[in-house]
Specification:
The chain contains 5 helices and 2 strands; from the N terminus they run H-E-E-H-H-H-H. It has 133 residues and is mainly alpha-helical. A two-stranded antiparallel sheet has the order 1-2. Helix 1 runs antiparallel to helix 2 and helix 2 runs antiparallel to helix 3. The longest helix has 38 residues.
Length: 133
């Protein structure tokens, strides 16, 4: 019975944080798009017939959605592993944002992403054995 009960909580938490992330991105995206267009932060979309100008970067909106959901999940569970995942997400975002804004050598991103693993290791949010099944 305990497994069913904990599975129920996992499902509820999953629904809650997914909805939070979805709605945060849904409601902040138009504001960010307006801001980026006003600042002239647009590029041509070469994959569409008319090559329209599209605002970029979209990463900050996604990070806001992910971070808000992870913060709520931490408040619901008080599990420090959630903070490790939040910090990993933020570090990975920063690495990607720097790589997107500046021309970096090919080795930069893989080496810099090693830093994203530090919170997972330091806060114990990793497995102790490899499961191949």
């Amino acid at each position: 019975m305990l497994d069913l009960y904990s599975g129920y909580h996992i499902l509820i938490y999953g629904i809650i944080v997914s909805a939070i992330s979805f709605f945060v991105v849904l409601f902040t995206t138009p504001k960010i798009i307006s801001s980026l267009v006003a600042k002239g932060e647009v590029v041509e979309d070469y994959h569409k017939p008319d090559k329209p100008a599209v605002p970029r970067p979209a990463g900050p909106v996604l990070l806001i959605g992910i971070a808000s959901a992870e913060i709520v999940l931490y408040l619901l569970t008080l599990n420090i592993k959630v903070i490790a995942i939040l910090l990993t997400s933020i570090i990975a975002f920063i690495v990607g944002f720097i790589d997107d804004r500046k021309i970096m050598p090919g080795w930069f991103k893989p080496i810099a992403l090693i830093a994203a693993a530090i919170p997972l290791i330091a806060l114990g949010a990793h497995g102790t054995h490899l499961n191949l099944w």
